[in-house]
Design goal:
This protein is an alpha/beta fold and 255 residues long. Helix content is 40%, strand content 23%.
Length: 255
């Protein structure tokens, strides 16, 4: 019997890019759309593609994603963001994987990240951008943690080989947007740090600036991207330190 697949997407005021993403999910048996605090035309646009639209307000990214997974009715799920596009070749490969394999529960897909129109292939990671993501999975095998940003994720079952075709990820328009990501993500991470009651130390987070920078710049080959690769690697290193400092400053203000 042929396996079915749900396309899952979460949306927050994405009227400008939503259609281009949803157009490329036409290979799915159903599209599940989660609207999180949307005040623009996202619902109107989404209704042209699906009748499985759910509105709400979630403080934690992990809660929102788990809610969406629960609403999917297919045996497999492909979970993407509104700034990610699935090509025809990738769609074909996804359908082949879920219908030809009997032993695997999860598949990892590479990501091509764009800044504006420029493909930036190297240097991503360390909580700042992703080189790939396990977003193709059997329902019931993936669960997100309860965090506001970059939630932890757990899987059950066996991983299959990585897919050959990448997701096209139109991450940010320019460097200003990249800086805005660092600002918003570090703020949300600071709230997670406060809530977790974990005892973070300044020295450890200073060391992480260098270790994460070197990992992205050398191991993940950010040097191949020139100055933008240096900047991405630097942001990956600074992210935990800035998050820690914002948490400590916020705790001082609260107290």
């Amino acid at each position: 019997m042929k396996n079915t697949i749900s396309g899952l997407i979460t949306v927050h005021n994405e009227e400008k890019i939503l259609s281009s993403c949803l157009d490329k999910l036409n290979f799915c048996d159903e599209i599940v759309i989660i609207l999180d605090k949307c005040t623009d035309r996202s619902k109107e646009i989404a209704s042209k593609y699906s009748n499985k639209i759910y509105e709400g307000s979630w403080e934690y990214e992990g809660d929102r994603r788990n809610f969406g997974i629960e609403k999917c009715e297919s045996s497999w799920i492909i979970e993407i963001d509104t700034d990610e596009h699935i090509s025809n070749d990738l769609a074909k490969e996804i359908l082949e994987k879920i219908n030809q394999n009997k032993n695997y529960n999860n598949f990892h897909i590479k990501i091509n990240n764009y800044i504006g129109n420029k493909l930036v292939k190297y240097g991503w990671g360390g909580s700042f951008g992703r080189g790939g993501v396990t977003c193709l999975f059997k329902k019931g095998t993936k669960k997100w943690g309860r965090q506001r940003v970059h939630p932890e994720v757990t899987f059950i079952g066996k991983f299959g080989p990585n897919l050959s075709n990448p997701i096209e990820h139109y991450f940010v328009k320019n460097i200003s947007d990249l800086i805005s990501k660092l600002d918003s993500w570090s703020y949300l991470k600071s709230l997670d740090i406060i809530e977790s009651n974990k005892k973070e130390k300044l020295g450890r987070n200073i060391r992480r600036v260098f270790s994460r920078f070197l990992k992205n710049y050398i191991k993940r080959q950010g040097y191949k991207e020139g100055r933008i690769g240096f900047l991405i690697s630097l942001f990956a290193g600074l992210f935990p330190l800035i998050s820690y400092l914002r948490a400590e400053i916020k705790k001082q203000n609260i107290n």
